[in-house]
Description:
The chain is an alpha+beta fold and 156 residues long. The protein has two helices and seven strands; from the N terminus they run E-E-E-H-E-E-E-E-H. It has helices spanning 55-74, 138-145, and strands at residues 2-3, 28-30, 35-40, 78-87, 98-107, 111-119, 125-135. It has a seven-stranded antiparallel sheet, covered by helices on one side.
Amino acid sequence: xxxxxxxxxxxxxxxxxxxxxxxxxxxxxxxxxxxxxxxxxxxxxxxxxxxxxxxxxxxxxxxxxxxxxxxxxxxxxxxxxxxxxxxxxxxxxxxxxxxxxxxxxxxxxxxxxxxxxxxxxxxxxxxxxxxxxxxxxxxxxxxxxxxxxxxxxxxx
Length: 156
């Protein structure tokens, strides 16, 4: 498992440590499984019903890990084209640390689809998602989205 760093200076609600209202998601790359992983401690400020993580927050997390998957698996940047979430069971905040896993399902020159799973703190699969991204050529990603190259996401 390789710990990743955030090379972007932004106010992203999903991954920026500087956004005081954000999720502050961090990521790891599991080379063996070809998966991106995020572990996150849910907080009550993100609940819908009492002690239940809001579905919109879960969907935000699915979108965010998919975006980071574009950076790592495809070595470029992209934007969300289509996003879906299937809620299998409630994510109880009191169950502790959530685990997200993202894998590349398919890709071509302009599109990629990622499969994402969200597990609660007890290891129960609670939510599945699929994120389709429009992929930019790396030259455009660097210019338009300040994509720094895949090496910038890992400590040397």
